[in-house]
TrEMBL record:
Substrate binds at residues 105, 169. Mitochondrial citramalyl-CoA lyase indirectly involved in the vitamin B12 metabolism. Converts citramalyl-CoA into acetyl-CoA and pyruvate in the C5-dicarboxylate catabolism pathway. The C5-dicarboxylate catabolism pathway is required to detoxify itaconate, a vitamin B12-poisoning metabolite. Also acts as a malate synthase in vitro, converting glyoxylate and acetyl-CoA to malate. Also displays malyl-CoA thioesterase activity. Also acts as a beta-methylmalate synthase in vitro, by mediating conversion of glyoxylate and propionyl-CoA to beta-methylmalate. The keyword Repeat does not apply. The keyword Lyase applies. GO terms for biological process: regulation of cobalamin metabolic process. It catalyses: (3S)-citramalyl-CoA = pyruvate + acetyl-CoA; glyoxylate + acetyl-CoA + H2O = (S)-malate + CoA + H(+); propanoyl-CoA + glyoxylate + H2O = 3-methylmalate + CoA + H(+). This is Citramalyl-CoA lyase, mitochondrial. The lineage of its organism: Eukaryota, Metazoa, Ecdysozoa, Arthropoda, Chelicerata. Mg(2+) binds at residues 169, 204. Its cofactor is Mg(2+). It comes from Nephila pilipes. It comes from the Eukaryota.
Length: 337
């Protein structure tokens, strides 16, 4: 028998054998954006690969990672930045990413390197699927991205918008996140990007506020919860912090499960060995999909009979749980395409 407990933004399903599943709910935003988290490609794991390291890039063919981020920022030394731009340009033209999302992370706008990175990206013969921008501090930074893309993005009738994912890495950025997202939503309506996600940069955030990073990350709890709330209010994905000790599989799994309970949709990874653990943790299990399909079926049956809320496997079911079930099924179908 299933027992259901509503916990913040998540639905916990406890089984008689002691297993627990979590279903993340996705609150609908009040803005006029056409974005919808249900229609975005899954980003359960986003793997950073130094843009100048051809050996590591070549290994992407052996992985089934949702999103590969060829990096121009933290993973690349200052004297390798130019090489990274050149290598990524060559990779964009010749490398077969298959079902893996091809993303490029440029340097931060305030670094003075972002424009050169972005101009390089926009001169590639093949654009990346997604542009990732670190250390967004204000809505002015979003305007900067919009203006640069507007001026240099080679838009044709057949070209699609670049997906935009940006990073929150400071106290100011977190406190101003609502205004920043509003600007991104507004400019995406007529601009060359589609605002799809937020990434929480935990280590830079800790450095900014003077916090000491601990194994259980209690010092980041409030920030992570606020981050998720804002992301979900704008219907964009929320990508959780890196688990730095890539050899600590048990700790990684624990961190993933905690993030999923909080409402995060995926996690940053820095080593290929982390990918399968993370992607499994942020995927609906067979049991969860079976529960969701059956709930949807029963809901439709009760609607035909003119009934509203009903009891399903020991719990009262209403519209919010139906939305969660529909999301589970939709995500499962995306992952099996």
């Amino acid at each position: 028998m299933y027992r259901f407990y509503r916990v913040c933004f998540n639905q916990r399903i406890s089984f008689s054998k002691g297993r627990t599943l979590f279903i993340s709910a996705f609150p609908r935003a009040s803005n006029n954006s056409s974005s919808n988290i249900d229609t975005m490609r899954p980003r359960r794991a986003i793997l950073y690969v130094p843009g100048h390291d051809r050996k590591k890039i070549d290994k992407l063919n052996t992985l089934k990672v949702d999103c590969a981020v060829l990096d121009c920022e933290d993973g690349v030394a200052v004297n390798k930045k130019s090489e990274a731009r050149n290598v990524i340009g060559e990779i964009a033209e010749s490398f077969d990413f298959g079902k893996t999302e091809f993303a490029v992370r440029i340097n931060s706008i305030d670094s003075g390197l972002a424009e050169e990175d972005l101009m390089s990206v926009l001169n590639f013969k093949k654009y990346p699927d997604t542009l990732m921008v670190p250390k967004i501090e204000s809505s002015d930074h979003i305007s900067w991205i919009h203006e640069k893309l507007k001026s240099h993005f080679k838009c044709t009738n057949n070209s699609k918008k670049l997906n935009l994912v940006f990073f929150v890495e400071s106290a100011k950025s977190l406190l101003d996140l609502r205004q920043i997202c509003e600007k991104a939503i507004d400019l995406s309506k007529t601009g060359a990007f589609r605002f799809e996600g937020l990434v929480f940069g935990s280590d830079d955030f800790c450095a900014d506020i003077g916090a000491t990073r601990t194994e259980n990350a209690t010092e980041l709890m409030t920030a992570r919860q606020l981050f998720v709330i804002v992301a979900k209010s704008f219907k964009v994905q929320a990508i959780d912090m890196v688990h730095i000790n890539y050899r600590d599989s048990a700790g990684l799994l624990k961190s993933c499960e905690e993030g999923a309970r909080m409402g995060f949709t995926g996690k940053q990874v820095i080593h290929p060995s982390q990918v399968p653990i993370v992607q499994k943790a942020f995927s609906p299990s067979e049991e969860k999909v079976e529960w969701a399909r059956e709930l949807i079926k029963r809901f439709k049956e009760h609607q035909k009979e003119g009934k509203g809320a009903f009891t399903f496997r020991g719990s009262m079911i209403d519209k919010p749980l139906l939305l969660q079930a529909e999301y589970v099924v939709k995500m499962s179908e995306q992952l099996n395409e």
